[in-house]
Specification:
alpha+beta; seven-stranded mixed β-sheet; three-stranded antiparallel β-sheet; globular; binds zinc ion
Amino acid sequence: MKSINTLNLLMEASCAGGLKSQCQVARRVTETWADANLFCAACTSDRIRSLPHNTQAIDFACPSCSAPFQLKAGRVWNERKIPDAGYHAMMRALASDRVPNLLVMQYTPDWNVRNLLVIPSFFFAPSAIERRPPLAPTARRAGWIGCNILLSKIADVGKIKVVANGMPIDASAVRGQYATVRPLATLDVRARGWTLDVLRLVKKLSKRRFSLSEAYEFAPELSKLHPNNRNVEPKIRQQLQVLRDMGLLRFVSRGEYEVLR
Ligand SMILES: [Zn+2]
């Protein structure tokens, strides 16, 4: 197994020789780097492999566990949202649990990997997908509707750092965090949205211990996200139990909870 300390953060720009568009160059350089350097967060494989292009929104797969990955790379680091492809295709992928793990990369003008996150596939809930306005009638693809992935609507435990401010994170730490949240993958995709929303709000409290009444304060936001559910408080209690069963929370005493690392 490769030690992460050898993770080379300098990307090779020469592999993009002959390409003209800035966008194509960036894609070639970042994908070549990931193919040659990135390890799988979901298992102990020290590589993930590029797939032929046009494999529906999937850029890489792990040769060992088959985990699919999509890479989104840019020079600008927007921690709130990143543009993705078609809105309807994304919602269909979500509903059938076919969203790949997402790699979000920021690189410097001299092609160094500055930040890299891996977001496990099971962290995408409908609340994290924003519908963009349809393209103008004058656009080449008039009427097409894209989407944004709202990173701000994904719990921090689901945004696993692989490189942070130019420093590689140890592979065992990355895999450990992936393993901690992995039980969420076993939840039915229709139920998972609630669990992820409650988890995100609990994490946003930034407290090790919290009370049920603090959790009930999420009710207005949760009602907005899930307008068909009128029993929000019982639903919050139920989701806290789910998170306990997943090993992400502990019940300390009646109405008091503890966030586990
Ligand atoms: Zn793997």
